Hints:
Blueprint: H1 11-15, H2 28-33, E1 39-46, E2 51-53, H3 65-75, E3 80-84, H4 85-91, E4 111-115, H5 122-125, H6 129-135, E5 143-147, H7 148-153, H8 156-163, E6 167-171, H9 181-190, E7 195-200, H10 202-209, E8 223-228, E9 238-239, E10 248-255, E11 260-266
Parallel strand pairs: 1-7, 1-8, 3-4, 3-7, 4-5, 5-6
Antiparallel strand pairs: 2-9, 8-11, 10-11
Amino acid sequence: MAPLPPLTESLIPFLDPYLPRKVPITLLNKAETDENPPFITLTFAQSIDSRISSSPGVRTSISHLETKTMTHYLRSKHDAILVGIGTFLADDPSLNCRFKINDDDPNHLIRPVIIDPTFKLGPFYENSKLRQAYLEKKGLPPIVLVKLSTIKSNPEIESFCNHHDIVLLPLESEPASRFQWMVVFRELKKRSIRSVMVEGGASVINSLLLSRDSSSGKPLINSLIITIGPVFLGKSGVEVSPCKELRLIDVSWWTGVQDSVICSHLN
């Protein structure tokens, strides 16, 4: 894989207000056990007409190399990266971090998290880039969230995950096909994950944009970072758009060689 181009320096102060703060070592135990979810950054690349791919299940290039480096820089600031199983099957992503300030720096090992209620991962994992990155010590094996009923009906899932060092996280789902986001993030927090970068796909993005903490009413997303590429993908493309109005606050814009990036918080 070709090395990433250097990070554009102006992106560092632009992104900084929207990134998780480092927790002092003396406070780590408290941070890992409190009831608050991890810091959640939702980030993705989209076309001008709010599409993230040209059609369902098709990997589509939208962003410039400049903002691809930015994506790996963002990964270097988080403990975990979360995607839905549809994104894994469509893109075969490595889900690792390739950003380094210097070539001699060690890799930042970000933990992949895959939302996979019915464990579709199994037949595709052994030949995946995700597993290859782990075998080459350039990444970590994933945490996979699977419905408890799926695991009970197929005991081989546990042995498969044990064999491949996959962390299996069984959860109840309600309704049948969905997990509650607050439950997901609190379970990740119990596993010492204090910040999560969510990258997709469309159903995950649209769901999280409107998700709120039931007790406080606050958005679950701490920061929203969207890269907008200069392309229309058309009506057959996979659309990202919440089902009702959503206003952004604390908005900042950055424009690079090709792409624009918007950072914000949710109202």
